[in-house]
Write a structure and sequence with these properties.
The chain is of the alpha/beta class. It has 2 domains: about 240 residues, Type I PLP-dependent aspartate aminotransferase-like (Major domain) (Aspartate Aminotransferase, domain 2, 3-Layer(aba) Sandwich), CATH 3.40.640; about 120 residues, Aspartate Aminotransferase, domain 1 (Alpha-Beta Complex). The strands form 4 sheets. The chain has a 7-stranded mixed beta sheet with strand order 1-10-9-6-5-2-4, with helices on both faces. It is globular. It starts with 13 loop residues before the first helix and ends with a helix. About 50% of the residues are buried. The structure holds pyridoxal-5'-phosphate.
Length: about 375
């Protein structure tokens, strides 16, 4: 069914076409100067030394873990409530994701009980900045420092979000971002790694290009050198066509965030008039970018029926994210009751740059009606 009001919609204009045309005209369409431009501009925006563009955020997480030496048998603490790409990236390394429960209000990893899960095998923590709402990084960094663990931030949804005065994804050892279609800015599929550590940056770049020197770097050599493959790398390269969209999108990032914050405020006010739906919480010292606007449905109401009925009213909504520990692929014995609860009660409501307040009024009217039918 095609909704009258979709959940999300990317925002493009002529700038993306102009950037793509430049790349097509140049005839260099694989990884090259446009990727370099996107990497430099992203690094500059975030205030980090290095940014490495890759095919998606799952690849970014995989390479981030490999670069810090995660291997078979290691344990990595993972925020349970997330898209399972987070846990999958740990499995790709042959390591074990140990799922840590999240806070019911913030949806983010709860730093309190993390320590109970740390063992001799624990090597890293992956906090997720859920839906663009930064995790409690001060506490996480303190724990990581004490136990000598690396921190990989899953900032897939959080490009532009801030924790205190720092951008999400720039506080731990490495930050991983997504340019998937439902993210703040998009290249269709795409990802970026951010770090201030030169060795990690070099390792990640190398692993993203089969474990060899990239074609563009070789192109700039003034003498011919036969490339060498000295480790198993991957083909996680972003193409210059994709990067062209990213360069144009990055220019729009701040205005998209500003608009989505205004719309989130409007949704907050609208939900005051609707019983049994709790608006998302925003922690002190954070700037939420609302990649998704995710409310909590009261336990009395069947959330899945609600999504179905809203769709019949032309309003597309969705679950928030997943409780990882119950996904059969992980065969996990971890217990994460808060995550499980949010998994069954969260409701993502439409939010995107082109959404109008009238659209939220219309969705709110449907929501009110559906709550009445289901309560
Ligand atoms: C928290 C989180 N991590 C990782 C990913 C994976 O991102 P990508 O689709 O770019 O691989 C997503 C995508 O939805 C996500 O939400």
């Amino acid at each position: 069914m095609i909704a009258k009001l979709p959940l999300a919609k990317p925002y493009f204009d002529l700038e993306e076409l102009e950037e793509i045309k430049k790349v097509l005209d140049s005839c260099w369409v694989t990884q090259g100067p446009e990727v370099k431009e996107l990497e430099d501009k992203t690094a500059n925006h975030l205030g980090v030394k290095y940014a490495i563009a890759v095919t998606n955020c799952t690849a970014a997480l995989h390479l981030a873990l490999l670069s810090i030496g995660i291997k078979k048998g290691d344990e990595v603490l993972v925020a349970d409530f997330t898209f399972p790409a987070t846990g999958h990236s740990v499995l790709y390394c042959g390591a074990i994701p140990v799922f840590a429960d999240v806070n019911l209000r913030t949806y983010n990893i709860d730093p309190g009980p993390i320590e109970e899960k740390i063992t001799d095998k624990t090597k890293a923590i992956i906090p997720v900045h859920t839906f663009g709402h930064p995790a409690e990084m001060d506490k996480i960094m303190k724990i990581a420092e004490y136990y000598d663990l690396k921190v990989i931030e899953d900032a897939a949804c959080a490009l532009g979000a801030k924790y205190k005065d720092k951008y999400a994804g720039t506080i731990g050892d490495i930050g991983c971002f997504s340019f998937h279609a439902r993210k703040g800015i998009t290249t269709g599929e795409g990802g970026m790694v951010a770090t201030n550590n030169e060795n990690l940056a070099k390792k990640i770049k190398h692993l993203s290009v089969f474990g060899m020197t990239s074609a563009w770097d070789r192109e700039k050599n003034d003498r011919f050198v036969v490339p060498e493959f000295n480790e198993v790398g991957y083909n996680y390269k972003m193409s210059d066509i994709t990067a062209a969209v990213g360069v144009a999108q990055l220019r729009k990032l701040d205005k998209i965030i500003e608009k989505k914050r205004e719309l989130a405020k409007y949704w907050d006010e609208k939900l005051q008039e609707i019983e049994f739906i709790e608006p998302p919480y925003v922690s002190e010292h954070t700037e939420h970018i609302y990649q998704s606007y995710v409310a909590l449905v009261n336990k009395r109401i069947n959330r899945d029926k609600m999504i179905d009925r809203l769709m019949k009213n032309g309003i597309q909504t969705q679950i928030g994210a997943y409780a990882s520990h119950i996904q059969p692929v992980y065969n996990s014995k971890d217990k994460c009751p808060n995550s499980l609860e949010i998994f069954s009660r969260s409701l993502a409501l439409p939010i995107y740059y082109m959404l109008r307040e009238e659209d939220i009024d219309m969705a709110g009217t449907s929501l009110k009606r559906v709550v009445k039918e289901l309560k």
